[in-house]
């Protein structure tokens, strides 16, 4: 069964300007989100709130009016990427062909990662203490595990494939997004093609080493840079 849509989307955590806000308040809200996404993509999610405010061109008091806690800002900045990722997994689980569904989901997630540098920080960055964001990541892992098992049951995905191998793919794919958009997408597609070829079940294929002890929610630690 596909993972059921979350009733508490991360965007509820101050992610959308309140209806009736003044134009300048809406502008500040958007500027703060943009500044947060850019800063987190470069330095991880431990960037000080004061740095986010400076990048957005507003004062700290304005930031806290829109996002009372650091967790609410992180959740709002990353909610769209996580929601799209979970939606891609849900769509893949509805596909009658489990192998095609797996390939489609991986292609969409890798494309999102190559197109948006913030995706790496959202999916592989440090885990903020926000229950909605944790819930979305847990849903992503549950959907991925279902998708992998369905593909294995068809006999087309090698039996020793582990869901943590997708994390390895995302780590590798994150290394191509520092190039131009065109080069990033081309490199991402080629990397994914190699990955999927190696994942197909074939007679006589040598066994893989044991899977790495990796989970999506264990990888929230990108290299940090100082401003």
UniProtKB/TrEMBL annotation:
Residue spans of biased composition, Polar residues class: 1-14
InterPro entries, per the entry: Homeodomain-like_sf, HTH-type_TetR-like_transc_reg, HTH_TetR, Tet_transcr_reg_TetR-rel_C_sf, TetR_SbtR-like_C
Domain of life: Bacteria
One Pfam family cited in the UniProt record for this chain: TetR_N
Gene3D superfamilies, per database record: Tetracycline Repressor, domain 2 (1.10.357.10)
Keyword DNA-binding on entry: yes
Keywords: DNA-binding, Transcription, Transcription regulation
Region annotated Disordered, chain positions: 1-27, 206-227
Domain HTH tetR-type stretches: 26-85
The entry's DNA-binding region: 48-67
Coiled coil spans: none
PANTHER family: HTH-TYPE TRANSCRIPTIONAL REGULATOR BETI, HTH-TYPE TRANSCRIPTIONAL REGULATOR RUTR
Name of protein: TetR/AcrR family transcriptional regulator
